[in-house]
Please model this.
Amino acid sequence: MEQHQSGHKLLKGANFAMVIFLGLFLIVAYLAWGLEAEFPLMVIAVLHFLQILLAGLFKLSYVVRLIAQHHLGQPLR
Model:
């Protein structure tokens, strides 16, 4: 029973992380591409790096979600 509960906790955490990383990615993308004239070049470079980092963290969260679904015996989607 406790393994089942930990699987649900892991799934909930992964879903939450995916939402957070997607939201942060969209904000950073807007700053990097929509307001690029407002920032110095170094800030734009950091924003572009953050896009790569946040995309990677989103993908990692998705893999954790798949692991949790597998752990719970749910179909992988």
Remarks:
- The radius of gyration is 16 Å.
- Residues 4 and 75 are 15 Å apart (CA to CA).
- The chain has a mean pLDDT of 93.
